[in-house]
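re: that complex we talked abt at group meeting.

here r the seqs, copy pasted straight from the sheet so there may be weird spacing, ignore it
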Amino acid sequence: MILDNPYLHALIVGLPLLAVALTVAGFGVFYERRFAAWIQLRRGPVWVGPQGIFQIVADALKMFQKEDLVPASADQAIFKLASWFPMFLALSLLAVVPMGAVEAEDGSWTAAWAVSSLDVGILWPLALGGLMVFPLWAAGWSSNNKYSLLSGMRMVAQGISYEIPMVLTAMVPVILAGSLSLDDIVTYQMNHGWFAVWPPGPGLVAFVIFFLTSLAEADRVPFDIPEAESEIVGGITIEYSGIRMGLFVLTEYAHTFVAAALTATLFLGGPHMPFSVGPAWMGVVWLLGKTLFLFFVIYWIRWTWLRYRADQLMDLAWRWLVPVSLGLVMLSAVWVQLMEGK
Amino acid sequence: MLDSWTQALVFLLLSFAVPIAMLVVGMVLRVRSRRKTSPIKHEIYECGEEPDGPAWIRFHPRYYVVALVFVLFDVEAAFLFPWALGIRDNGWLAIADMTLFLGILVIGWAYAVRKGAIQWQ
Amino acid sequence: MTWTDLAPLGVELILLAGALSLLIVDLILPPGDKRILGIGTLGVFLAGLLATWTLPLDGLALGGAYEGDAMGVFLKRVFLLSGALAVLAVQGHGPKAWPRRQGEYHQLILYSVLGMSLLSGVRDLILLAVAFELMGVPLYALAAWQKRDAGAAEGALKLYLTGAVSSAATLYGFSVLYGLSGSTRIADVAAAVSAHPSPLLALGATVAVAGMGFKLGVVPFHMWVPDTYEGSPTPFIAFLSVGPKAAGAAALVQLLLPGHGALLGTVMELFLVLSAASLVLATLMALPQSNVKRLLAFSGIGHMGILLMAIATGTVDGLASLLFYLLGYLFTNAGAFVVVHAIREDGGDDSIDSFNGLVHRSWFLSGAMLLFLLSLAGVPFVVGFWAKLFVFMAAWQAGFEWLVILGALVSVLSLFYYLRVAKAMFMGTTERRDEVPMHWSVRLAVSICLIAITGMGLYPNPFVAVAEAAAKAFLG
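got the structure back, here u go
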């Protein structure tokens, strides 16, 4: 079979995946504006194309055409490097997400169609996602702008603080499924129920915390103090112009999309269909549906919630999320012992 | 096994190519000024005022404290993963061990919270 | 593994449980007077001491990385006593000087003693490195205790930097030893050295020993010692100058002596040179000092030379003399520093001049200080004499005659600078006639040290017997 060649497999599965991610991210920029307008009872961008759906094309053209300005007093090399690195990291997290669901003769399900079925699965997105603070801080620092530096420092503080509960809650599926591999985690959910639903309680709480920390990692409201535009003028992106600025904007949406996809995979059963109908490729549709639903919830939160203060952010992460997620880890370990222990 | 790493690395290259491709397109499409550019264009933006000194200054030590506490918990998470995989085989002893380990860690966490290490107000 | 395998680690478990419960108490108590923490810490040390007699501490633990034996028990007592003295002496000073940090002081001392205690029976390079760090890291924080003081910051930074470099050196040395012998067990490493001696193994052992030499503060790795001593709180120095030094010596013994001193043989020349250099240079540098803490610091470096001499013998007699030396040095040096602390509390500034005419103000302190100084110099009827004598005898038998003669000469010379302090106390003049105020804890600490050094000085036999039994248990 052609997919036995690892290079071809990665290209055939990976390219469409990247295309979808970028499309959703780009379209998300436009959709968010319409959505915000709808919530705030205004019209938003409606002039370019029917209902304004070509707005993103116009925006992109504008970004590509602008002059590439680098401040004279900035740290040139790091400034340029930091502009494309976050996008690379955000997209690469998707490598291990299984997108298909295959039903066997006996009615059991198996996850399939990941770009790569790494046996260390979950560590891949956690490790690469953990690297995200480096380019963001580098961007803030190298700009030689006070607002950027403040924003970069806040980003690091927030990023590392929310990484702890994120890693800990990601451990709950690992414990329940007994494997690091995302394929195994999804397969387990397909046959035993989604982790957000079963075991009752710990799974749901872990799901909520993981989702919240994903928001914080992607710097989305209510955790967007690093780029609080009313306070520090947009943060690390101040000095960037043209396509470098566009990369940062697109990265934010891509990262949000990826975070939603990972949450759906870890806690909502990934491509699993709650009722068994349709061919295997329906799994892809289901996964995309779940991801887009979470994507929508993120917008919803953004346009209805207030921004947290820096100290409230720290307080929430360290005083509440960390101990609760530690408790969840122990609870799920006890659950596994009770259910399947020897 | 090795195949899955190959696949992952190929995907890494693909996602690497995306921002690079966008930068290249931008390089081709973008406008360039014909005249010599003014140095004011390359100034730092500080809400319209002239920038006042460099931004590379000393920073509040609270960020440093957060980084220290983070390292502590991140290492602890690294210890948790192998343990998490072995729960089914090691039984209740594994849970007792980890309860002890996490118990000591939680005391440290309580210490950090109580002494205001992560209080930012 | 089961929980009963931890039985030989009884003292360590007591220390750990005590430290953690005191931490919780510290968190629960409202800010303010936290004297209870000091008392509790003393209780933990006493419980640990009691356990060295009552609990069965012999046997293997941690999968063979740790082995409890008579020498370990002996060392544990030394470590626990040094910790207890440091905590006792600070009871009057601490609640006044740094009321918000009382908990941390006691915690850090407890963890440092925990690390030392683990060192008392290591059989594995990894446990050795980990325990060494557990002992060392709290010391960095404690050295910087007077954080607003520039001298303290300098001393602490020097300690920290040399400590970090020496840890790195020790670990590199260990990795070479592991790489060439294929095992992290010290016994296996020693066997590999005797079976296939190689210059690389000698290099690994040398680097590891040099790293530990930094912590011990032997010449030429001594730069941090006087500055750190000068800048840190004196009761902590009473601990730093004794406990970690004893633990470092214990670590060297357990690393070098197994397998008939196979590893020791590879670094013997280094050892003798370091020992001689420490003896001579420390004495020469101590002569012009006008600050008592710096003087005692250089005197301590000289004493490290004698410790190295005892280790270099590699014999049962040498090891027994080392253990006895550690016990005697513990009370002598800790006592001297506690007296310095008492003078400092009275408004002195650690200079020799602030000891002027002390005899008119407190015959107790001046008499005690005189005895401590005589014991440091090695004058008969206090413990220092016997301790040095036993080490010299063992070294003579081992064939280091020139080193022994050098040590004896240096001891005589050292009497000169010790007696400068005595002269200030008994022949100096002062206007003041008021009694030196002393907290009960300082009086108790000085009394304990005084009783110990005179008791061991007049009747050393039972202690020597215990040390010999311990040395035999280790060397077999």
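couple things i noticed - Chain A has a mean pLDDT of 85. Chain A touches chain B through 88 residues (CB under 8 Å).
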